[in-house]
């Protein structure tokens, strides 16, 4: 399986789990209304970030500047987090769910991945620029 | 004047400044601005690099990997920045409105990036970007736009953060100015680097 196919597969799995969880969050009576809304927003942020991650192979073909594992693993980790959130909702005590602040966990995870992605991009961009500069300088000679 | 009570000024430097004494929103705008400012170092650095490619390299092509990576990075920054900034809206009605419209904002943002990427900015295309926004949404767009250099100078004014629409952007004028500012800024920077 090549890079793009692996990312597609991880993303499809994430989407399936996400849709399932979103349906649960919208319909369950285990969540209080304010917590439900906050969780939906946080989940939306995570989904958008994963969608952006899934686009990375288009920008960085064959993992030239960013390791292939980085994208695939982060999407899988996000999927795992969704499963944990689902378990917390299904198995948790409704009265304590608000205190657990699931939305904070989800948003915190999204923020951490975002920062990591930006760091990786900064390094990749520098590398690409140096290569481009080297190639151009060489071409001018 | 009432519309002077809720004011934030986005300076050309990309630093967002708020006159706290005039705010009546329980610190929400201050928190929003603080979050936005934390990202500015990232954004400014990346935008500088993108500017290098858009204006400084005469032989850059759409397939240039550095250009692709820079555009992608700005997309990540812009979209996630919008999402995190908008999540600060405390009023449920505003939050609901923001969530409902998030996709629309992202479409606008994407259009702006595509527009930049095309390398063929023109006034007619700018007029197609039709923005109808509410106060906090305006703030989010303006901050994100300023952060990546699309909006060089914006003043946000409003009649109250939790109530009716705070500011109606004149899309043609505002977007046109933003894009014109971006082009001029890039040209100036390019000229400075060339020593002209």
Describe the structure.
The complex is a heterodimer of chains A (141) and B (196). Chain A is an all-alpha fold and 141 residues long. Chain A has one domain. Chain A has six helices and no strands. In chain A, helix 1 (3-27) packs parallel to helix 4 (68-91), helix 2 runs parallel beside helix 6 and helix 4 (68-91) packs antiparallel against helix 6. The longest helix of chain A has 39 residues, at 102-140. Chain A is elongated and about 60 Å long. Chain B has 196 residues and is mostly helical. Chain B has one domain. Chain B has helices spanning 28-56, 65-86, 92-118, 123-127, 135-147, 171-194; strands at residues 8-10, 16-18, 154-156. Chain A binds chain B through residues 37, 40-42, 44-45, 48-49, 52, 55-56, 59-60, 64-65, 107, 110-111, 114, 117-118, 121-122, 124-125, 128-129, 131-132, 136, and chain B through 42, 45-46, 49, 52, 59, 64-66, 68-73, 75-77, 79-80, 83-84, 87, 92, 95-96, 99, 102, 106.
Would you kindly provide a brief summary of this structure?
The complex is a heterodimer of chains A (141) and B (196). With 141 residues, chain A is an all-alpha fold. Helices cover 86% and strands 0% of the residues of chain A.
List keywords for this structure.
heterodimer; A: 141 residues; mainly alpha; B: 196 residues; 61% helix; 5% strand; disordered N terminus; disordered C terminus
**Can you count the beta strands of chain B?**
3
Overall pLDDT score of chain B: 46
Give the number of helices of chain B. Answer: 6
**Global Rg of chain B:** 17 Å
User: Strands of the largest sheet of chain B, in order across it?
Assistant: 2-1-3
Principal-axes shape call of chain A = elongated
* Secondary structure category of chain A: mainly alpha
**Low-confidence segments of chain B:** 1-25, 39-43, 53-60, 85-105, 119-196
Number of folding domains of chain A? 1
Total strands of chain A:
0
| Total count of domains of chain B | 1
Shape of chain B: globular
Question: Distance between termini of chain A?
Answer: 41 Å
Q: Could you spell the SSE succession of chain B in H and E letters?
A: EEHHHHHEH
The ordered string of helix (H) and strand (E) elements of chain A is HHHHHH
Percentage of residues assigned to helices of chain B: 55-70%
């Amino acid at each position: 399986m090549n890079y793009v196919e692996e990312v597609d597969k991880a993303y499809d799995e994430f989407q399936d789990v996400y849709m399932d969880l979103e349906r649960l969050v919208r319909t369950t009576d285990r969540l209080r209304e304010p917590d439900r809304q906050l969780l939906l927003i946080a989940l939306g942020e995570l989904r958008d970030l994963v969608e952006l991650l899934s686009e990375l192979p288009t920008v960085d073909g064959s993992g030239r500047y960013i390791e292939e594992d980085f994208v695939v693993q982060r999407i899988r980790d996000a999927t795992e987090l969704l499963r944990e959130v689902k378990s917390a909702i299904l198995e948790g005590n409704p009265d304590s769910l608000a205190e657990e602040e699931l939305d904070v966990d989800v948003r915190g995870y999204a923020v951490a991945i975002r920062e990591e992605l930006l760091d990786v991009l900064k390094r990749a961009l520098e590398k690409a620029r140096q290569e481009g500069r080297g190639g151009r300088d060489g071409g001018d000679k | 004047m009432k519309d002077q009570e809720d004011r934030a000024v986005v300076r050309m430097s990309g630093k967002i400044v708020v006159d706290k004494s005039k705010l009546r929103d329980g610190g929400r705008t201050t928190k929003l601005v603080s979050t936005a400012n934390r990202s500015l170092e990232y954004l400014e650095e990346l935008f500088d690099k993108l500017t290098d490619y858009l204006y400084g390299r005469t032989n850059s092509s759409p397939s240039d990997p550095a250009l692709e990576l820079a555009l992608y990075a700005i997309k990540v920054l812009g979209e996630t920045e919008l999402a995190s900034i908008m999540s600060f809206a405390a009023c449920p009605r505003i939050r609901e409105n923001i969530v409902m419209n998030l996709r629309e904002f992202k479409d606008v943002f994407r259009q702006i990036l595509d527009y930049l990427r095309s390398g063929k900015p023109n006034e007619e295309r700018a007029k197609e970007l039709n923005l109808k926004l509410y106060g906090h949404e305006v703030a989010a767009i303006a901050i994100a736009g300023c952060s990546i250099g699309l909006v060089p100078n914006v003043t946000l004014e409003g009649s109250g953060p939790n109530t009716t629409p705070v500011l109606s952007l004149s899309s043609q004028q505002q977007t046109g100015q933003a894009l014109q500012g971006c082009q001029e800024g890039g040209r100036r920077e390019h000229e400075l680097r060339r020593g002209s």
